[in-house]
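FYI - complex with farnesyl diphosphate, inputs then prediction.
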Amino acid sequence: MGLVDVSRLPQHVAIIMDGNGRWAQGRGEPRTAGHERGADAVRATMRAARRLGIPALTLYAFSEQNWDRAPAEINALVDLLCECLVSERDELVDNEIRLSAIGRLHKLPQHAQARLRSLSSETELHKGMTLTLALSYGGREELIDATRTLASKVRDAEIDPNDIDEAALARLLPSMDVGPVDLLIRTGGEQRISNFLLWGSAYAEFYFTDELWPDFDANSLYYAIEAYQGRERRFGLVPGAEDGASPGAAGHELERAI
Ligand code: FPP
């Protein structure tokens, strides 16, 4: 933690939590055991992010494409999510963490939707940190949904097509409620975005690690932030124009200036 400059924290950290299956298979255990250990890593990362003072943490917990996995694995993931929504309730409440969820949530089983709704509304006024779970989420799907909404507004003469700009589209993207991604971490050794926060990651710094998600912990997060703080964020401008600090609202302006 001593490596991290808390005055220049990324304001929004997003994580592709990959490698649960390989972690389990490497130990001769079923893939679901990897997901269970992955839930421990979620807890450790959430705590570390909150302690540091990171305002927004978004986790890719279940992609639209994950529905193609074996039903037993899907059921185990949904059960684990529901268990965590119960077991982590006090942690969220005691630490002023707001829970949010993005994705095509209507595709989740009703009982999972109900638990998400309940904990989200219980924590909606919390200001300590926003923890967003991306569930049944896909970046392209999110853009399609927003485009449909915009098309309907045009049809109903609520918006002129010429008034559709970045801000108008971003307002319709639930993932942008907490602003653009500053630091995108992917564990598990692959180096791709896999349909995660496509719009919000436009100027994110990427950090890839071979570490498998169940092994990720507070120190792993500190290393990722240290790497982020060593980058020069330019947003398409000339070197030296940006000091590497988190851009926040200014970053929005710079993004628009491209
Ligand atoms: C990717 O690993 C991980 C997932 C598809 C699920 C992520 C879920 C968790 C971390 C557990 C619980 C989460 C919450 C929010 C309570 P993989 O299975 O694709 O790994 P592999 O590439 O090694 O097969």
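The first strand starts at residue 12 and ends at 16. The domain at 6-138+175-257 is CATH 3.40.1180.10 (Undecaprenyl pyrophosphate synthetase).
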